[in-house]
Amino acid sequence: MDQTLTQKKCQPCEGIGKALSTNEAQELLAQTPQWKISPDNKMIVREFQMKNFLAAVKLINQVAEIAEKENHHPDVHLTGYRKLRIELSTHALQGLSENDFILAAKINELPAELKK
User: What structural domains and CATH numbers belong to the chain?
Assistant: First the structure.
């Protein structure tokens, strides 16, 4: 039986092959609720409307810890003091890899204080 994405570990990006096809990315997207694939199929994105600024910063710090452990780092954007956007892409491939979905699945497990 395949491991779930949260049980997997990100692989070094250099030398992992080629970017995922649209179909492959769609299959992995089904395992990462609330993430969306960009129109060019080069990144996945999730937006959070956080409870407040401190909740947003707390989530960013938790994401940073996971990203360091996995050695796969997202682009993080905080605007309007509580609107958080996380973008994942495998820059070495100029597209998506399983690493992006592994990290997305792990981010989905984090407790987030969202705006009610």
Answer: 17-108 (3.30.1360.20)
Give all strands (DSSP E) within 1-116, no chain letters: 36-37, 44-49, 75-79, 83-88
Q: What does the block give as tokens for 60? A: 């960013």
Residue 116: name the closest of 40, 17, 48 by CA. Answer: 48
29's tokens: 């997207």
**Torsion angle of the four alpha carbons 21, 24, 30, 36, in this order, in degrees rounded to the nearest 10:** -10
What pLDDT shows up at residue 1?
A: 40
Instruction: Find the DSSP H helices in 11-97.
Output: 22-29, 53-70
Helix H or strand E segment including 46: strand 44-49
8 A C-beta contact, residue 113 and residue 36: no
pTM over 0.85: yes
Rounded Cα distance, 43 and 91, in Å:
9
Average pLDDT, integer, range 15-29: 92
